[in-house]
Amino acid sequence: MHWHASGVHWSSGDFVVAGGLLFGTGCAYVLLARHRGRTAYRAASAIALLTLLMLVWANLAVGILGTEADPANLMYAGVVGVAVIGALLARFRARGMAWALVAAALLLTVIAVVALTAGLAVPRDNPLPTLMAHGIFIALLLTAAWLYRRAARDASDTRPD
Fold it and tell me: Can you tell me where the transmembrane regions are (predicted)?
């Protein structure tokens, strides 16, 4: 079964994947928010998770480089992998989460440079949309990293000496 709406064609599998992504992101946020209750930590978690969700969603829906079937888009799985593995290694502590997101933002910067130098930007004659998309994702990841860093600093300020 396929759903059609103004040029968008979704199969039943697409709805299952979208539902799984939304459910998984929501569950991850609930677990992170319960794990560390501070406002800065919760805000950082929300921004980071929504940014990674949008990165995956855009990649699956239309592809960031070319179409969703373009193998160059597999590079973005590395960004999600760096963020997730970094978070696990940091055991979800704010300072480590900040470093994980900085690493993910750096990898995304490298991907943008590779895309532009290899002629993978879409459209090929105008790299501005590719630069803007990467810039927005990078800025959001760095904003979340800054909030995690702030949460780490606030937590260390409240510890007894």
Answer: 15-32, 44-66, 72-90, 97-122, 128-148
